[in-house]
Each structure stands twice: as structure tokens, then as C-alpha cells.
Amino acid sequence: MKLVYFASLRERIGLSEEDRELPADLRSVADLIGWLSAQDEVYAYAFSGGFARAAIDRKHAKPEASIAGAREIAFFPPMTGG
Amino acid sequence: MLKTIRVQDSPFDAAAEAEAMSKGRTEIGALVSFVGLCRDEAGTLATLELEHYPGMAETELERIAGEAEARWPLLGLTVIHRFGKIRPGEPIVLVICASSHRQAAFSAAEFLMDFLKSRAPFWKKEHRADGTQGGWVEAKDADEAALDRWKA
């Protein structure tokens, strides 16, 4: 699975993107955040505070959204465009 | 409907974009043009750096524009959002809405700005005049709350 990170999340994790083999039992965006956070304290810190937003294949996704069949999952802080 | 949606690093010419939309058309009765500028409140900002999610930024602007088209009888719609380093006084975002009457044009322009501020994947980082990083601009609760008024 391709994971991409933006803005403060990208800086905290130290990567703009990576490919990860994910365990088959991860169902949702929230499961994926929990799993990443358990792998490494850098991720635990990056996702702490619960502010992270996600997109699945470039569409906004809620924490409970299914990641089945996704090609690219993005994580980022609340947007500040405009 | 004439629709223009662009994500670009270069500046834009708001007057030229409005001219391009209305030129040779007589059915347009109202055209609202909004420009969001890079603001330096205290004289401490060197540049604002806008990071974006290529691919999703365009898609999300298209989606928001599609919602505006469905809600108001628009005759023209332009959204241009810049990314990269932007200096104080430079334009960041342009929204132009044209319609037969002003209410639709005003409302659609406000709707587009409200949604693109907290739904289009752009993030602002400040670089200060003294060379230090000012850090990431935090999202305001007021921006999220602004979306509520558009709930049908």
C-alpha cells in the first residue's frame, strides 16, 4: 500500500511517501493509524492528538472508512488553503 | 457553462480571468470576483509556502465547483489556487462566479471559498523575515463552522 504524508505530518514522520505491506486484518483508516502508531514511536507522535485527516485514493475519508482495495492512502493535518 | 479550474505555482491576473469569462457574452448579468491575498499582519512574514496534494487538489476543487453548479444557476465559474512560495501582497486564490443575477453569483463565490478553505488539500507554512520558520498555519474552528450555514 502506498502511504503519503503532507505538511506537519510529513515533517513529523520524516517521509513524504512509503510503500508498506499491511496486515490483512486492518479494516479502516483508524485501524491503519493504530497499527502505524504501534510500529514506531515516530508515528505514534505524528498521529497523537487525533487531528490527522485522511484521504483514500485522493478522496476525503473518515476514520471508519474501509481501506479495502485502496491504492493510495494519504494523511495530513486539517487543511489551511484559500 | 464556462468552467476553469487550475492549480498552479505562477501568479494569476484576476482582471484577465474575469474578462475571459465575460467576453462576448451578453447573458451574464452579474460577475463576482474574489481574490485571496497573502497577508502580513505584523511585518514579520517573508513568504508563505503552500504545500498541496497534487492530483487531489484539482479533483477536490472540481468536486466543490460541481456542488456550486448544482446549487446555483451559474453561467461561469473560475477557481485558481496557487501553491509554492508566495510573498506578502501576492494573490493566492481566485474565485469568479457569473450568473444572470447577483444573488447566485455572490452566494456561489462565498460557498466556494468556504469549502475550498477547509476541504481543498492545501497547507500554509510561514517563513519569517528574520530567517526563522514561523511554522504551519493552524486551521481555525471558524472555518469549519462556516460550512454549517450551507447545510440544506
How would you portray this structure in words?
The complex is a heterodimer of chains A (82) and B (152). Chain A is an alpha+beta fold and 82 residues long. Chain A has one domain (2-76): Beta-grasp domain (Ubiquitin-like (UB roll), Roll), CATH 3.10.20.30. Chain A has helices at 7-13, 29-39, 41-46, and strands at 2-5, 17-19, 53-56, 59-61, 72-76. The longest helix of chain A is centred in the middle third of the chain and has 11 residues, at 29-39. The model of chain A has no long low-confidence stretch (mean pLDDT 97). With 152 residues, chain B is of the alpha+beta class. Chain B contains four helices and eight strands. Chain B has helices at 14-22, 56-71, 102-119, 141-145; strands at residues 2-8, 30-37, 45-52, 74-82, 84-86, 91-99, 122-128, 133-136. A four-stranded mixed β-sheet of chain B has the order 1-4-6-2, sandwiched between helices. A four-stranded antiparallel β-sheet of chain B has the order 5-3-7-8, with no helix packed on it. In chain B, strand 7 and strand 8 form a beta hairpin. The radius of gyration of chain B is 16 Å and the shape is globular. In chain B, 32% of the residues are buried. The model of chain B has no long low-confidence stretch (mean pLDDT 95). Classes of the chains: A alpha+beta (82), B alpha+beta (152). The interface between A and B is medium-sized, with 17 and 28 residues.
